[in-house]
Amino acid sequence: MLTIRPATINDVALLSALIREFAEFEHELEQVVITEQDLMRDGFGADPRFRVLLAEWSGQPAGYALFFDFYSSWVGRPGIFLEDLFVRAAFRGHGVGRALLASVAGIAEHEKRYGLRWEVLDWNEKAIQLYRSLGATFLDQRRAVLLEAPAMRMLAATAPEVVREGQLSLKVD
Fold this sequence. Notes:
Distance between the termini: 44 Å
Oligomer: single chain
Number of helices: 6
Shape: globular
Low-confidence stretches: none
């Protein structure tokens, strides 16, 4: 039997393990540096940066969805970005991924979000087939871009002095 539930701070060790399993599935385990302390602070602290749904099959952890808010300047409404959607190998083919995705969509609908966005690796044909069957639009004309440290630090060093000294803040306290 499948259940979907919000993760709690008590799930941090499990979430950490699932994130590593997902990274291993994507052949990028060496990229994972997140700690349980990071997850506690950023997901379950005073200012949560993300939300997580956990899927359980007959009480066994089967997968998870990690997502967060973003804003569309074109639509003028917030959306949800699905960062991770992962189902453990033993539970694939039973509708767990679809149920997690449907649950995130239900949250987006309830919160009146304009839509969901996510990325999929081009070699993950099963996921691509699932997303197509759900009516997802593939944004092939767009390319994902990521600026990581140290390149980000180099660019930030060219910002106006008020930004570098922390005098210009966009966060309202």
